[in-house]
Amino acid sequence: MWGGRFAEGPAAVMREINASIGFDKRLWRHDLAASRAHLAMLAAKRIVSAADAEIIGDGLDRIEQEFEAGGLTEDPALEDIHMHVEARLAELVGPVAGRLHTARSRNDQVATDFRLWVRDAIDAVEAGLADLQRALVTRAADHADTVMPGFTHLQVAQPVTLGHHLMAYHEMIARDRSRFADARARLNRCPLGAAALGGTSFPIDREWTAASLGFDGPTANSLDSVSDRDFALDYLMAATQCALHLSRLAEEIIIWASQPFCFVRLPDDFSTGSSIMPQKRNPDAAELVRGHAGRIAGCMTALVITMKGLPLAYSKDMQDDKPPVFEAHDLLALSVAAMTGMIDSLTFYPEHMRTAADSGFSTATDLADWLVREAGVPFREAHHITGAAVRRAEEMRVRLAELSLDELRGIDGRIGPGVYDVLTVEASVASRTSFGGTAPDQVRARIAEARAALGMER
Ligand code: ARG
After folding, report:
1. Directed axis angle between helix 322-345 and helix 284-307, to 10°?
2. Burial class (CB in 10 A: 0-12, 13-18, 19+), 113
3. Full pLDDT tens readout for the chain, 458 residues
4. Quick check: CB of 363 below 6 Å from ligand 1?
5. Which one of 76, 103, 170, 365 is least enclosed by Cβ atoms within 10 Å?
6. How far apart are CA 354 and CA 265, in angstroms?
7. Mutation probe of ligand 1 site: the residue of 80, 101, 114, 223 with most atoms within 8 A of C-beta
8. What number of other Cβ atoms are within 10 A of residue 66's Cβ?
9. Please, are residues 106 and 2 in contact by the beta-carbon 8 Å criterion?
10. Cα-to-centroid distance, 109 and ligand 1 (Å)
11. Alpha carbon distance 116, 122 (integer Å)
């Protein structure tokens, strides 16, 4: 490709360290799409003759058929996907193939191909996340009234509903989707035509190639165009945040599936056994979702550190941009699919959740709120009175609702019989009707909005 300048070929190890074909072959479809757009533009601007463009176009079609049918044969001497395509084109159509590379460089080519690839990756993740949201919303709708303990510090805090808990993850995934959508909007400018770094002397039409590849327009600065990898970092950062959410949900499933909790059971097809302990059902898929989040964060860090010291414009370090993005994408796609499968098929144990919700004096806040509302007690004082009631119940080894009225009146004379209406876990959740609260009616309202947004209305 640059033989004119060199008397000798590269050393074997140079070839090896230089080659990216082992991974950038994944860009082949996008490379062909970008070449077709470039070729059509060159022909329209009469930079390449119509006759030559037709020959080259046919060659590109053949290459597409070949790669589609049998993949591509890697030749380490042909560094990357761009050179593989160009070399095959030359074999197929002869020297006219060399005209395709007019007014472009591999620097703008790889920047364009990679943007196209990341754009597809974003669309794929987005679709997967919408499926996960639908799974969460569907299970939440079935459990809008199911009482479970809400935790802070993993200590029973207040009763909540399972539907509310699942919808919390729906919200987190909604933010992830909006981060991916932001990344897509920023990504969608076309670097093709920036050439090596300074633009080109040929009368190209960058607006046209950008539009034909589905971009919103061309990038504005040729130096930035070939050295910008923000779009890959945006993707990796959004992927990392999303993976963190999946990991937290995975952790909940792991805890919930443990015997002391026994809130859920994973179906056989999402569990593994142990080779030595016949009774074991292990939540491996959830553990791997949790584990993959660490690897995805590692991919993000890898590219951050690759980019941090690079001067303008292109440096070969940037060839290392692709493996972390590909790896993160594969791990994330698998994690999203596995999580959707688990959410779809988990068995919940509402009776165990309710029992746990009724432990740890979870309605203590309701007693304090009752004192404020019904007896006009300032909240701080009510908190203190309730603390004394909890201490008494603990001594007697009973629940708050099992303390007699005399017992409660002994603590504070303003407590009346109406208090028992708020001390059950059902009454507690039903009372939390503030916007976004855990009351079943609130949860159902949020579910209805989510269903509409996800196109789940029939
Ligand atoms: N294989 C290279 C990459 O992935 C293509 C760009 C090569 N450009 C260059 N100036 N050597 O980044």
Report:
1. 160
2. buried
3. 667 778 777 888 999 999 999 999 999 999 999 999 999 999 999 999 999 999 999 999 999 999 999 989 999 889 999 999 999 999 999 999 999 999 999 999 999 999 999 999 999 999 999 999 999 999 999 999 999 999 999 999 999 999 999 999 999 999 999 999 999 999 999 999 999 999 999 999 999 999 999 999 999 999 999 999 999 999 999 999 999 999 999 999 999 999 999 999 999 888 888 787 888 889 999 999 999 999 999 999 999 999 999 999 999 999 999 999 999 999 999 999 999 999 999 999 999 999 999 999 999 999 999 999 999 999 999 999 999 999 999 999 999 999 999 999 999 999 999 999 899 999 999 999 999 999 999 999 999 999 999 999 86
4. no
5. 76
6. 16
7. 80
8. 14
9. no
10. 9
11. 10
Residue 306 Cβ inside 6 Å of ligand 1? The answer reads no
| CA distance linking residue 49 with residue 105, whole number of Å | 20
Instruction: Tokens for 322, please give them.
Output: 């692709």
Phi, psi of 161 (to 5 degrees): -105, 150
Could you confirm whether 245 is annotated as catalytic?
no
> Which two three-digit tokens encode residue 417?
């019989």
Q: Any residues with CB less than 8 A from the CB of 251 and at least 6 apart, and which? A: 286, 290
Look at the block and give the residue holding tokens 């190209």: 204
Distance CA 367, CA 385 (A): 9
Do residues 193 and 209 make contact, with C-beta atoms less than 8 angstroms apart? yes
Reading the block at residue 30, the tokens are: 């996008």
How many C-alpha atoms does 129 have within 13 Å on its Cβ side? 28
CA separation (Å) from 403 to 9, 231, 393, 418? 89, 61, 7, 13
User: SS in 3 state form for 190-216?
Assistant: ECCCCCCCCCCCCCCCHHHHHHHCCCC
Active site residue 275: no
Whether residue 24 has its Cβ less than 6 Å from ligand 1: yes
Please report the pLDDT score of residue 220 as a whole number: 98
Cβ(226) – ligand 1 distance below 6 Å = no
Q: Which of 49, 274, 359, 404 is catalytic?
A: 274
Question: Residue 90 class from Cβ within 10 Å (0-12 exposed, 13-18 middle, 19+ buried)?
Answer: middle
Residue with token string 């920036």:
194
ω into 427 cis (within 30 of 0): no
Mutational pocket test of ligand 1: of 16, 86, 106, 307, the residue with most ligand atoms within 8 Å of the beta carbon: 106
Report in angstroms the alpha-carbon separations of 111 from 105, 189, 224, 314, 391.
10, 11, 10, 10, 66
Per the listing, tokens 């290392």 go with 320
